[in-house]
Amino acid sequence: MLEFAEARHQDRKTLFVEVILPLAIAKNYTYRVPFELNNVIAIGKRVVVQFGKSKLYTAIVLAITEQPPEKYEAKYLLEILDDRPVVTDQQLHFWKWLSEYYMCFEGEVMNAALPSALKLASETKIILNKDFEYDKSELHDKEYLIVEALEIQPELTISDISKLLSQKTVMPLLKGLFEKNIINISEEVNDRYKPRKRTFLTINPAYHDQDNLRELFAILEKRAPKQADAVLAYLKLARHQKAITKNELVDESGAGAASINSLIEKEVFIAEERNVSRLFFEEEFLDANFELSEHQQTALDAIKDQFKQKDVVLLHGVTSSGKTQIYIRLIEQAMAQGKQVLYLLPEIALTTHVIERLRQYFGASIGVYHSRFNDNERVEVWQKVLNGDYKVVLGARSSVFLPFVGLGLIIVDEEHETSYKQFDPAPRYNARDAAIFLANMHGGKVLLGSATPSFESYFNARTHKYGFAELTERYGGVELPTIEVVSIAEETKKKTIQSHFTSVLMGDMQAALTNKEQVILFQNRRGYAPVLLCKICAYTPKCINCDVSLTYHKHTGKLHCHYCGYKEDSPVICPACGSTQLEYRGFGTEKVEDELSMILPEARIARMDLDTTRSRNSLQNILNDLEEKKIDILVGTQMVAKGLDFADVTVIGIINADSLLKYPDYRANERSFQLLAQVSGRAGRRGKQGKVVIQTYDPAHRVIRQVIGNDYSDLYFTEMEERRAFHYPPFYRIINLDVKHKDPEILYNQATYLGKELRKHFGEERVVGPQIPLISRIRNYYIQSIMLKFEKDGVSINKVKTTIRDVITQFQTTKLSKGSIVQPDVDPY
């Protein structure tokens, strides 16, 4: 009997769990596991815990131990939410690396990594899923009460539901309702992604018989000649392409939509609605057995060969060189080995056209993951990746957080893009660099692709840290566009410039319109006019929260702050001197669009910038109209530089290149070259050689000459000399510390103190600042920046980061730190 009691006592071990909470706290908390849950607790499962006086959070189990915490008495965890872990051991290792490398907290990484539905907290808002029909009779009593309450009050917090049911743990109930698709997380449902659909036509197989076809023509030519034209046009198109859309047939036949609909009703045509790309539809990718060109095959062989020795390979391919087809062959190889593939893209908009290409080959094995999806869809993708159902995942930077099992290949397309860098909130990670660590953890390979690689990646390839492959010709032998540089100053003197358009650009636009071709105009500033200026006293309206001038937007008639969203009415009288002589200086995309519509009233003009693409699907609708030739001229910010591929875009106009070239930043020349080259690459991609017109006050600028010659190497070697001399990447590592406070005087003292402490440890040369950044106040917080530079050789960056953390922690223990925010940013640019 005594032996039985001892054995039973041994079974009742007291277990404790270290958990990650979705909060910016320096240490993980430990909770006690109730005895009855000892057998079901596991690392990677979600548990409900109380933190603070009354708040409940979903936490992730990081470690299980029998050792209680030393400094406090562990509370019991309240509930285990999962039957099996939702976060893998490798993910937890990845989170730890991210928090250490980017100098943030594991809770901040967890917050970024998990979809909202997997990290419910007391104040999380719950709403009903209006897109889903449910039967109340199938709900349990408590589920019924929650649903009934949500029908009366459209939004409830978890705390509200807890009070309603008079019980503390309601998260398992909400988890059940979420899995039944009955509820949603409110902040995730506003911008739901919807695929674009198009109607494809095929001719009824009965008319493959020539006698039946002749009989059909005999009937239609007598009774409905327009329908006969439509059938004839279909047969003509079918000789050259496998898929024919209803819109294409209407354009080709001139028969009108009504005639096509009649043929569908008569079952001459069979109509099928399919999800397609919103960016473009490219015929050559329909054939799954496509052949690579000689140049593509050489590049592919070089990549495969390099992967034998190197984990990372850089593919430097000119715009429109057919990099995607090479990616497809590499994905096929990884899948054949039973591996998963992550295909990273810098913009959500780009995923829509690439997904359609890839689905031609990989079908249901491919998943998409980005912030336009609602929470239900994101959790579904998470589970399918975890289960291995998705072999290929296509997504934006947050895709690196998915629970991969056996990741064999990561493709980082347009690897130079700044969109891969997360600026706010923490973790301030770069998805490209994180992807390299992630692939290494899984024993996989990374392919970086770009027409204009980042200097860091190109440097790593030249120093043989990465492998290297090159594609120097456009797909199909299409020539790169011709580039003409026009002096704004010269044309202004000669009075040949109209508004912001030189005679050269105007002539090329008019020629394109005459030839029924399309034009893209690039201006890297949105709004109507960047500055409103009083001619008498030089007063300029500024944001009340930020240290920036307000930009006038004509469509709202207001002055806008592009940093915090503040708006105010545009004054007609100067508030400083009372003068009525106010004028708008400078120009943004809105003004370009407005003035162009007066100069070319017959042209159909559209604008693509942050203002016109805020609403759901607005970006895709603009691109759809461009593809279907409902737009003649598209005016846009740098959004137009990324991934657009349209057959009839033959002219690109860069309205003012100087705004890029004169930016006060050590990367200005690199970024200018990348942007100008990428924008130029949108012209003449399908058989027609395009033309690019660059308008500038400085036609002799070195970077412009390098863009004309497509001379990336000259740019690289010239810039490298300066980078080495002035201690910038890739020769040095940079860590920025932004110190913020609402009082500028207190901030000055805080930043000065931190700067002195850092100099004690790292010396004078490695610490730059504190200094006031270009924008010195954002959202009522004044900012001072300290830049730390460390040579790559002979310095332990881990020890450096430990020291910086210690200095910040020591500063935060002083009275001086009150009210301050210190934000480290590793590899900030």
From TrEMBL:
The keyword Zinc applies. It is an enzyme of class 5 (isomerase). Keywords: ATP-binding, DNA replication, DNA-binding, Helicase, Hydrolase, Isomerase, Metal-binding, Nucleotide-binding, Primosome, Zinc. Binds 2 zinc ions per subunit. Zn(2+) 2 binds at residues 543, 546, 561, 564. It catalyses: ATP + H2O = ADP + phosphate + H(+); Couples ATP hydrolysis with the unwinding of duplex DNA by translocating in the 3'-5' direction. Its EC number is 5.6.2.4. HAMAP family: PriA. NCBIfam families: priA (TIGR00595). Component of the replication restart primosome. This is Replication restart protein PriA. The lineage of its organism: Bacteria, Pseudomonadati, Bacteroidota, Sphingobacteriia, Sphingobacteriales. The gene is priA.
